[in-house]
Amino acid sequence: MAENIGRTLLVFGLVIAAVGGVLFLAGRLGIGRLPGDLVWEGDDWAVYVPLGWMIVVSVVLTVLLNLFSGGE
Length: 72
Hints:
Blueprint: H1 2-28, E1 38-41, E2 46-49, H2 51-69
């Protein structure tokens, strides 16, 4: 049982690290905002809702989870 939990945590950690790496590289390449991102700005405040990135991350995680789940 502990082996299964350890393996699951390792896979989740690798997925999170991969997503972080992609976002880090995207920021370095100047891909900060995608179409669909919402920004509201005032005098002393700003709200940024990254809907474009949410969709990209969702699609990538869906593909990865489907690959690793084995189609069960």
